[in-house]
Amino acid sequence: MELDMLPQLSESDNLHAIAIQLVASKQGALPRNLNRATHAQIMTWLSNADPELGSQVHNIQGAPLSISGLIGHRRKKNFVKAGDEFTLRAGILHGDLISPLLKGLENHGLGKVVMVDFPFSIKAIYAMPGSHPHVGSSQYSLLAKAPSLGQDITLEFLSPTSFKQDQHIQPFPLAHSVFGSLLKRWNTFAPEALAFPKIQWNGWVAAYDLKTKAIRMEGGPQIGSVGWVKYNFPDPEQARIANILAHFAYFAGVGRKTAMGMGQTRLKQR
Question: Can you give the residue ranges of the CRISPR-associated protein Cas6 C-terminal domain (predicted)?
Fold first, then answer.
């Protein structure tokens, strides 16, 4: 489903990232398919405020949300104890979604939430920039004016990141895969006036420190890379656009399954 098929979503300039603080209500091993459940829970909160909107957003190809897995300490074998705290982060690529999502959370209230039969309680919801390390806001028009970082751009991949390449999965974040993914999402959700042309990326990997890591999902483990990569773009115009997209990655994530915990990414500041 394309964005222009959603009458509720007008063209929007705003970007948001919110954080939901959860507390485990019992001890035990976290479920294998928890990342799919966190995605479903965000959709439920959206639907609480606007059932039609929640259904439509769920069906958009390249959803206007990036959703983390549960961020927080885990013991051996994914074991947690009652009282352990976690953060669920949602990046919102279309400003019209922030109000219904917060309204859905308000309707739910602080208290119990169950994901894959594992109970948590909502301790706090953070939406104001500066209120929590995982919270932020910006505008496409502001990012489009981001000061240049020069030829070198370093990205940190905070959760397993991978890409669909033909019929295979590529876990190494090559420049054309990373910035091609970001460009596609930018052009899908940014105001039309800020869209970029199709780019044949000629950036290259200058340095990296990566390892492969798996996220457990219902259909089996999903492998991706975590760590950092330094990219170099010799062409000044490509470097300028890559810099804008690197800032955008904070909200959008990179690669596959960004609404299910994969591809959480941020620009590494010098």
Answer: 155-265
Segment 149-171, tens digit of pLDDT: 899 999 999 999 999 988 899 99
Q: Which top CATH class is 144-267?
A: alpha beta
Domain 3-137, CATH among 3.30.70.1890, 3.40.190.10, 3.40.50.300, 3.20.170.40:
3.30.70.1890
Q: Are 128 and 210 in contact (CB under 8 A)?
A: no
Q: What is the pTM of this model?
A: 0.93
Cα Dmax for the chain:
54
What's the pLDDT at 55?
77
